[in-house]
Amino acid sequence: MSPRVASANAIEVRGLRKTFGSTVVLDDVDLTVAAGTVTALLGPNGAGKTTAVHVLSTLLRPDGGTARVDGFDVVRQQDDVRAAIGLTGQFSAVDGLLTGEENLLLMARLRHLGPTRSRARVTELLERFDLVESARKRLATYSGGMRRRLDLAMTLVSTPSVIFLDEPTTGLDPRSRRTMWDIVRGLVADGTTVLLTTQHLEEADELAHRIAVLDGGRVVAEGTPEELKGLVPGGHVRLRFPDATTLRTAAGLLDGSTRDDAGLALTVPSDGGIRTLRTLLDRLDSADLEVDDLSIHTPDLDDVFFALTGRADAKETRP
């Protein structure tokens, strides 16, 4: 068996490939996740996000390429990988016939923590996830958010260094979702590495240091949220004027603008930068044109998602 490979990266994937019959689910995927960070896998249904997580967590064997998690090879060192990771799936894996405390104690026993250490760890996790009052209640009384918090607490029983969160906020209300976000931020602040799959674009924007966009089993773009937003055209400034005469004059000054006569407004292509905006306003000021209102739109992850996914001709882009 190969030894652990020391690296500043918690996850290193090269040329990963997985097929089911004639269907290619992962097609030459490369991915690097730095230790102590959050990376989000973003993409439509069927893009390969969950399959990638299952390969990296040793639930599926890849058909090609290499992958290391916490320095261990996912094929040759499966036991070492499993000891280093935690996995929370799309749906709660807790036992509904047990209490929250019993679920955690069961997981602690499965992780061979021993009676004393198990009890201490369960007490710590119940407090950390605000489940002390409901610890001895059966899962039937738990809300969806409480179940997801318990599910994540069970993942953390053995203090994994790398956590895979496969759509962890599916079905949660906005308040519960934000609670989960705070928990994830706390884990990362403590040095844990998180690989997150999600279809909530706001979630990726809020949590991820880097995002890999998957489509058709391939990474079609990768970078920080701001880098990805910079790939997509469509930024603009919308200017509203006091009257039609001012609107027409401004339209003649600003090349490429689109006029909205009914709204007395112009839409001007712009990257939203301060320098570009100052130049725009200086041109209007020099012509003594009054502006009633100004708003700036820059591309968001929704724009990235729609621009880069669902197209057979999407090209890989790595800022």
Question: What would you say this structure looks like, in words?
Answer:
The chain is elongated. The protein has 319 residues and is an alpha/beta fold. The protein has helices at 49-56, 78-84, 100-110, 115-128, 144-155, 174-189, 201-207, 225-231, 244-253, 274-286, 301-308, and strands spanning 9-20, 23-34, 38-42, 64-69, 72-73, 85-88, 162-166, 193-198, 210-215, 218-223, 236-240, 258-260, 265-269, 293-297. It is built from 11 helices and 14 strands. The chain has a 6-stranded mixed sheet, sandwiched between helices. The protein folds into 2 domains: 9-230, Rossmann fold; 234-297, Alpha-Beta Plaits.
Task: Give the topology.
Layout: E1 9-20, E2 23-34, E3 38-42, H1 49-56, E4 64-69, E5 72-73, H2 78-84, E6 85-88, H3 100-110, H4 115-128, H5 144-155, E7 162-166, H6 174-189, E8 193-198, H7 201-207, E9 210-215, E10 218-223, H8 225-231, E11 236-240, H9 244-253, E12 258-260, E13 265-269, H10 274-286, E14 293-297, H11 301-308
Helix pairs in contact: 3-4, 3-5
Can you tell me the CATH architecture of the largest domain? 3-Layer(aba) Sandwich
CATH homolog superfamily of the largest domain:
P-loop containing nucleotide triphosphate hydrolases
Return the structural class: alpha/beta
Determine and state the CATH class of the largest domain.
Alpha Beta
Strand content: 25-35%
